[in-house]
Amino acid sequence: MAKPGASRNTPTAKKSAIAKMAPATGSKGGKNNAGASIQNMGFRDQVSSYAAHHQLVAVETLMRLWANPMSSVLTWLVIAIALTLPGALWISLDNLSQLSGRFQASGSITVYLVPGTAIKDGQTTQKTIAGLSHVVYTRFIDADTALEEFRTTSGLKDALDLLPSNPLPPVIVVEPQLGTPQAQVLALGKSIERLPFVDVVELDTAWLERLLALLALSERIIWVMGALLALAIVLVVGNTIRLSIAARVDEIRVVKLVGGTNAWVRRPFLYTGLWFGMVGGLMAWVLLAICWLLVSGPVEDLAQLYGSTFSLAPLSASAALFLLFSAMFLGWLGAWWSVHRHLDQIEP
Amino acid sequence: MTMVRFERVSKRYGAGKDALSNINFELARGEFAFLTGHSGAGKSTLLKLMMLMERPTRGKIIVDDQDLTTMRPGQVPYHRRKVGVVFQNHQLLFDRTVFENVALPLQIAGYTPAEAARRVRAALDSVGLLGMEGRNPIELSGGEQQRVGIARAVVNKPALLLADEPTGNLDPELSEEIMNLFLRFQQVGVTVLIATHDIALIERMGHRRLILDHGELHCSERQSRKSDSSDLLGDDHG
After folding, report:
1. Is the pLDDT at A326 greater than 90, yes or no?
2. Is the overall model pTM greater than 0.95, yes or no?
3. Does B237 or A223 have the greater pLDDT score?
4. Which residue in the set A11, A32, A259 is minimally distant from B109, CB to CB?
């Protein structure tokens, strides 16, 4: 270590200790890397130290949240609630569309003939309908049979006996081929409507169509609401991170002063945002589970009243993971946005 | 063998008067110099320019063969790692130990914890604070805090050490102790520039002086640092 001055014998106790602190490459040569630190490290060391810092920051920020949960519990709750709302709606929608899927199979057409149509004419019409495309099954119910059926199933036997004449028209039940596109079922109904003796054609799929349209609308509403609530999460996390940046201004200044890059300074805040999202997402799972427990019992009771074995399905695993990862992404995004706005302004 | 070169450097804040105007000087590698002048003369601004905490309005600054005036923002952190700085208010973080304060630059530079620990102890040893690693800086005296600040500044083994009023809050005895510490770093090859208005101390220590007056630089005529060093060391330790 032939440094200028080092050769001079100075009688000081700290001499040897100080000598260790000589600039890394000394003063000869005047090369560009005097005092270099990172430049002396190999590429692999740099990569591993980069990974090590990520790991360190990830653990440190998580521990910080864990050590002081009260300071951030409000943010977590806001995130959790903001996620629970669209999550719960999504569960309902998912269940409804599964329910509507079951009904899709029973999309039959009821053809009411003009009251007083003769049985013979009715049977002719039935044959005509059976010859139309997409029709797999037809059944003719004459007025008397219809009344008899009604009498046994409705429980209005006594009232019906009081009627002077049969008020029911003859009916033809038409079942289109399973999986026939909606538009063709509608076209089929139109062509039946034009046949003689036909009074009214009722598509049982009409209500299903309305339900499907309603479901599509609800889905759209959920997405819009989800987007707004996602924005709220970003803003809430952003604001929380802004406060924690403000609380650590001194530290950030010092770090920048001793050569911390912006990425290095940003890192803990981005991880904090990520953890906010994660904890919020996990809490949303818990909230959704509670909601499900509260609602699924009454839903089953209701279904039973309709003679159905339908039960409310909980959030699927893939949807639950999607919820968690989007929460983490939103937390990270909020932190990134806040850091981007505030951190670069802090200069030593 | 130049460590620092200022070529016709001016710095103006806003539309006001020049904080620094037409500054020209050089510091050789391993040189020890004082930067002095009345308060508001531009001492801090000059140091900030070398740290790229400020950019000059005009002129060229070369530090360690690198032109700071053309340095991209992304390179600034890497430049700062090569320069140690000590402040009057030492800028220590009170939410962590002495060890963690000193280790910060190494952590940033990506040293392994083991290597960092070794270097931190070496740095603390060099300022005579070995054994205080676990303490919180707030428990230490002003002089000790300043030495922690110096340890942090030199832990990266910088080739250039800058100090802005490092003895501003200390009594004369402690001030001299701190100055001697800087001197010892110069002896192992570190280039040292200390901004101070402690005229008495400067007079006693000798060395080259850069005098700022209303943003203009008047270089001291005493430039032969070899004789300076030996004089002072003879006085203090002989």
Report:
1. yes
2. no
3. A223
4. A259
Residues of B with Cβ-Cβ distance to A266 under 8 angstroms: none
B51-106: pLDDT as tens digits: 888 888 889 999 988 898 888 888 899 999 989 999 888 789 998 999 999 999 99
Is A112 within 8 Å of chain B by CB?
A: no
**Inter-chain CB proximity B77 and A260 less than 8 Å:** yes
Q: How far is CA B118 from CA A302, A321, B99, in A?
A: 72, 44, 11
Give the minimum alpha-carbon distance from A20 to chain B in angstroms, rounded to a whole number.
7
CB-closest option in B78, B112, B187 to A10: B187
Q: Are A17 and B1 inside 8 Å of each other by CB?
A: no
E strands, A130-215, are 135-141, 171-176, 198-203
Separation CA B94–CA B143 (nearest Å): 16
- Which residue on chain A is closest to B103 by alpha carbon? A258
Q: Which long-range contacts (CB under 8 A, 24 or more apart) does A265-270 make?
A: A265/A343, A266/A336, A266/A339, A266/A343, A267/A53, A267/A54, A267/A57, A268/A57, A268/A60, A268/A61, A269/A241, A269/A244, A269/A245, A269/A335, A269/A338, A269/A339, A269/A343, A270/A332, A270/A335, A270/A336, A270/A339
Is residue B85 less than 8 Å (CB to CB) from chain A?
yes
Q: What is the torsional sign of CA B156, B161, B166, B172?
A: positive
Q: What is the pLDDT of residue B223?
A: 47
Altogether, the residues listed in chain B come to a count of 238
Residue B211 sits at the chain A interface (C-beta within 8 Å): no
pLDDT higher than 60, residue A38: no
Which residues does chain B have within 8 Å of residue A43's beta carbon, measured at their own beta carbons? none
- How many angstroms separate the CA of residue B221 from the nearest CA in chain A? 22
Give the containing element (helix H, strand E) for A220.
Answer: helix A205-247
- Bridge-based pairing state of the strands B160-164 and B83-87: parallel
A254 in B contact zone (CB under 8 Å):
yes
Tens of pLDDT along A71-124? 788 888 999 999 999 899 888 888 887 776 655 545 678 889 988 888 888 888
Cα of B79 to nearest chain A Cα, Å? 7
Beta strands in chain A (DSSP E): 109-113, 135-141, 171-176, 198-203
Query: Which residues are within 8 A (CB) of B197 and not within 5 positions of it... i.e. 6 or more apart?
Result: B36, B37, B38, B39, B43, B165
Query: ipTM higher than 0.85?
Result: no
Chain A residues touching B131 at Cβ < 8 A: none
Q: How confident is the model at residue A150 (pLDDT cuts 50, 70, 90)?
A: confident
CB burial class (10 A; 0-12, 13-18, 19+) of residue A112? middle
- What is the pLDDT at residue A333? 96
How far does the CA of residue A244 sit from the closest CA of chain B (Å)?
A: 14
